[in-house]
Amino acid sequence: MVTNSARFLRNLLLTTGMMVAATPAMAAEVTYSRLVNADKEPHNWLMNHRTYDGQRYSPLVRINKETVKGLKLAYAVPIGGGTGNETNQATPLVEDGFLYTTDSWGVVYKIDVRSGNVGRIVWRMDPKQGRQYANRGVALWGNFVVSVANTPARVIATDKDSGRVVWETNAEFGVPEINLRGAPLAVKDKILFGASGSSLGIRDWLAAVDAATGKVAWQKFTIPAPGEPGSETWKGNNNAWETGGGAVWITGTYDPQTNQTIWGTGNPVPEFDPTVRPGDNLFTNSAVSWNPDNGNMNWYFQYTPGDSWDFDEVGTHILIDTTVGGEPRKIVTHSARNGFIYTMDRLNAQILAVKPYLDNITWTKGIDQKTGRPLDYDANKDVQTYAGVTNFVAGEPLKKVCPSTLGGNNFWPTSYSPRTKVIYIPALTFCETVVNTHEPREKGKRWISGTISSDERYESKLIAADPVTGDIKKSVHAPYPNTSGTLATAGGLVFAALLDGTVAAYDDTTLDELWRVNLGTGFTAPPMTFEVNGRQYVGITSGGGASAKHRVENNPELKDQANATVLFVFGL
User: Fold this and answer.
1) N or C: which end of the chain has fewer CB within 10 A?
2) How far apart are CA 198 and CA 104, in angstroms?
3) What residues act catalytically?
4) pTM for the complete prediction?
5) Total domain count for the chain?
């Protein structure tokens, strides 16, 4: 029997990061101290971005520029429900020879990867939900594997050893349309997670639960109610804030020194019709800094006010300690969906630099280097028209919008290498035409008020850029979309994957391709790396799903490509 005193001591040890060497069970638990000091465990990948700063950089060096040519498939583990249209976007976590991941049904897997030549499933935790668009993985805290599930929206803690559910918290908060997609983030004694489902016309939020019990600690809406700060940016008489969107569906970053967690927020709703939601629509399309203890907002920065192209900015906000103008600065950098790299001071969101990373941007004439706002933003307009590509006559097409509504960089993560001091952006390069339809809201159905089309091939670039200045160092073209992301390593490599089934490694300085393999099925999950028994591996899960078909519809050679959901692990 576990006494209340014992529970108190266990929770105290977890939240303070203390470890008792004489107690093996405690030594294996994932404490806050272990997460803060994840770099001291380079063989493990303990959280979604590996480290709190979101850099997606591994210090491992056994797979490097010289040895990568010998990289081969070590083993593969099929996961998922076998329906043929599933999407896998989860980053697997690895702790001391055990891998934890999810599929699009929200099922959590514990896989034994210690042998190096086979992955054996130890247990599955099935939350018994329908298939969802995406589930982006789990968090480790204490002896728990924490995941999200839907129908209804829930946060679930599973015992890491037995696979049994310890606690489960309903997270609908009275709105059944809410769904959860992003991997949770464990900070101190709390689990943070965000709501999505904006397109159904809901008001999204970021929330935290007590990691030991699942009890809700706080919930903060990304769309202000009347009278709250920012509510003046939701104009008109139709209560647009109630269906405003602002989804939070990609895992945020965290700075332990300043105790702030930074998450990107999604687009306003309806996506393509700002006439029904006049104003800048705060706090959509923004970077927002919250206090993880109580959810209080520290600061925000909005990238595209009054957005009409689905340019949400949920993607990773990378934290870097660097030098700017000869002075040490704590910065946050973001390769935005709208085609620009934004770098700001993470203490107050002061803009330090904004530069385009794509060369065909048409939605704006540029960005003001002091304010970070588009040059053609007009504070006197309730509906922004920007560079003249907006046309709100129903059924009449816009001029071609570049980047496309998928953006340049989106949920597929950018990485940063402290070795080269460069960020590696996986960017889509095609454009789209949007037709505004002014459709009314129909509860329970997707509400976008527009249609999109493109006559261009769906292709991409891998771009190396200076995060301080925004200057492009190098760029290479890929004939297929990268909606997977990048991984940078101390071995001098950048890993990426494409929707045609290619997994490749590039030189982190020249971007020369050093290794590639094609698995015949598309990727939308990020690559990661880990080490077991002195051997380094690279892991990635396939599964482009039904949405990938849209992303390659103009690449006819891929129209009959099969979709498989498989965890692939490569080793030397």
Assistant:
1) N
2) 19
3) 310
4) 0.94
5) 2
